Structure formats: structure tokens, C-alpha cells
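stage 2 :: seqdesign
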């Protein structure tokens, strides 16, 4: 999918040799997807790649920062880190970093989900069971 942003279109062109990558508008920016997984976001003409405990040190060594936003007077950091600017001059490096971001997205998807101890109603999980007995 072609984006209506020149910046996003440039990123998609750089990633084209890697395979099908699409961009979808989300929250004032874009999400970049491969095989149905979000592995990157674009906000304010900056590319942020998915990071986790395995590839986050690469971003830290490159002096990059995570994507942050403010909510309820609090700064929230997401698990997406800004891509180094030199990737835009080296398509092979861009694809290598994108692959590691995609791998992080795969690991996040495979990670076990935390179980909630209460239902949305605030009642214990087996509350309905207790009522019917």
C-alpha cells in the first residue's frame, strides 16, 4: 500500500526488496506491517522500530530514544525506538534493522499474555459461577 506521506513512501521504497510491507494510518501517524504484524510506526516524519530486550541494546548503542507521548500528565514510552538516520542512506542496513524489529514483534506475539485477576466489572473472575450455585 502506498501512503499519502512522502516520508512513509520513502520508507516503503527502502523496504521493498525485503518483501510486502504496508502502511496504515493510525493515531495521527502510520503503522508499518509485515505479515499482519506491526513492526514499526511513523510519527512526525520519524521512523520507530519495534524493540525488546534482545534488540533494544542496538538502539541504545546508536544513541536513539524510544517513542514517547504524554497522557494524564505522565510521559509514556512505547517499545518502539527511533531508527538511526544512517539507515535512510543504506537500504541493506534499513532492511537488517527492520528484520530485527519484525523479530521483536514476533517474540511479543508469542509471549504469554498476563492473566487478569478481575473481570472488567471489577468482580472476581468466577463471580457468575458463585451466583448460579
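stage 2 :: out
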Amino acid at each position: 500500500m502506498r501512503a499519502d506521506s512522502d516520508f512513509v513512501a520513502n520508507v516503503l521504497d527502502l523496504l521493498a526488496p525485503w518483501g510486502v510491507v504496508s502502511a496504515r494510518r493510525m493515531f495521527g501517524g502510520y503503522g508499518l506491517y509485515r505479515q499482519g504484524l506491526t513492526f514499526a510506526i511513523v510519527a512526525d516524519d520519524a521512523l520507530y522500530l519495534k524493540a525488546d530486550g534482545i534488540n533494544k541494546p542496538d538502539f541504545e548503542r546508536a544513541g536513539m530514544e524510544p517513542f514517547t507521548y504524554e497522557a494524564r500528565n505522565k510521559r509514556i514510552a512505547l517499545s518502539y525506538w527511533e531508527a538511526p538516520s544512517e539507515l535512510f542512506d543504506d537500504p541493506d542496513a534499513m532492511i537488517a534493522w527492520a528484520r530485527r524489529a519484525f523479530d521483536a514483534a514476533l517474540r511479543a506475539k508469542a509471549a504469554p499474555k498476563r492473566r487478569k485477576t478481575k473481570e472488567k466489572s471489577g468482580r472476581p473472575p468466577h463471580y457468575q459461577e458463585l451466583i448460579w450455585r
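stage 3 :: structure notes
- Strands lie at 22-26, 29-34, 37-43, 46-50, 66-71, 74-82.
- The longest strand covers residues 74-82.
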